[in-house]
Amino acid sequence: MAVSSGPQIALTDEERFPLLDDLSFLNALRQDVFAPKFNFKSGDRLNEAQLSRVHWHKIKYYKEKVFWSAAQMPIWLKDYLHWCVETVPFYQNKGNDLDSFPTISREDIRNFPHLFVSNEANLNELLVYHTSGSTGPKLDVLFDAVSQASWLPQIESILKDFDIAITEGKHTTAIALICAQEKTLTYASLSTYLEGAGILKINLNPSEWNQPDHAVKYLEKYNPQILTGDPIAFMALLDLAPQLNPKAMISSAMKLTKGTKNKLENYFKCPVIDLYSLTECRNIAYATEIGHKIIRPDLYLEVFDEHKNVKLPYGERGELVVTGGNNPFLPLIRYRTGDFCSLKIENGVPFIVGLEARNPILFYTKSNIKVNNIDISNGLSELPLAGFKMHQRKDKTIEFLGYSNEVTAEEVTAFLHTIFKNDIDVMVDIQNISQNNTVEKTLYSSELI
């Protein structure tokens, strides 16, 4: 008999929330008459020592953020490298100088996950997160309860820039992760860090609910303070026209266009924040007019040549590389993100400039004039597209698939003809957004590479 590789429910609620005596709000979220058909149970598992470490991490890195500069590395880096060399098998036999470390890749983590676990990690605290594999083969990422729970102070540090605070307490829903997929894990949970406030992950797919209108009624009843999700899910939510009053919406996983951002802000009357994060190290930065403002002083960012193990000078564009974090199951030293940008420091704060997810792609007109995908992204950003894919065939024909309930194929076709100087053949398909989308997140590809 085959062993299931999916999540296994093995803990009691008391084990999931050892510091929370009153679980009545959790039961209310699960058993509400409008509740979805939750298919999983989740909890932060924080004990007193672990919760103290989360608060310590918040005070050390987020109360007063001290970053690095173009001329000086962060003050914690030397001790961090020494700790990695002494306790993490993958980094053994390296020097304590950052330049003695080559870059590492997703494949290194996939092939040797055990070698990235510090000898000081407590295996009893091991948590495993399965990535979707939307931008490549699936990857299991290991965490402990502290590094997992640290996403909340990271989110708080972003909201602070908008003068927004999450209300704590056992009778409020702090955050709801909104999905609009064919299938995904869904659950109601609590946050020990937020004094028992509710945490939801729901899927708008009608098959997940007992009645068609229950998704709206459930969300309106518990009115989450913060909504998180990707642009596809947010536009699917907008289509349901719920009467919600979120303090903020945090979009991640896919590019958020200006058109989509404006529509969401106009309806929900709150900031819509475009977050850049990685499963491997959680939240990194959020979009501003300057670029993506980095929020993590415990991460050190560099830019490397795409193909060579060569660090590029400050200000040059290349592949973003990450060092640091607080996860003893996956300490990162010069991890290649697969995303491309340059770095800029303004008033002591680093910014990621011109961020493009995954490898930059060049497209060509029929006359072989090059068109950069960054220019395409900038132009399409003005349209309320929740997501899109663009591919160039060997005969140079452009195939475009977009997701929107408003943008027409004619609008996209006209834009593509303009940016390709009317020297291209295009095939445009615009699909409506629903509550059960199956959407790939890879944006650009070409057979001419």
Summary keywords:
449 residues; alpha/beta; GMP Synthetase, Chain A, domain 3; twelve-stranded mixed β-sheet; 20 strands; ANL_N_sf; AMP-dependent synthetase/ligase domain-containing protein; AMP-dep_synth/lig_dom; CapK_Type1_Caps_Biosynth
Write a brief caption for the model.
This protein is α/β, with parallel strands linked by helices. The chain has helices at residues 13-16, 24-31, 48-63, 77-87, 106-111, 145-149, 151-160, 214-222, 231-240, 258-268, 373-380, 409-419, and strands at 127-130, 140-143, 173-179, 187-191, 197-203, 226-229, 248-251, 272-278, 282-287, 292-294, 299-304, 318-324, 332-346, 349-356, 362-364, 370-372, 387-392, 398-403, 426-431, 444-446.
Give an overview of the whole structure.
By secondary structure, the protein is of the alpha/beta class. The radius of gyration is 22 Å and the shape is globular. Mean pLDDT is 91; it is low at 1-5. Helices cover 24% and strands 25% of the residues. Strands 4-5-3-6-7-8-9-10-14-13-12-11 form a 12-stranded mixed beta sheet, sandwiched between helices. The protein has a 4-stranded mixed beta sheet with strand order 19-18-17-20, covered by helices on one side. A two-stranded antiparallel ribbon has the order 1-2. Helix 9 runs parallel beside helix 10 and helix 11 (373-380) runs antiparallel to helix 12 (409-419). Residues 170-325 form the AMP-dependent synthetase/ligase domain. This is AMP-dependent synthetase/ligase domain-containing protein. InterPro entries: AMP-dep_synth/lig_dom, ANL_N_sf, CapK_Type1_Caps_Biosynth.
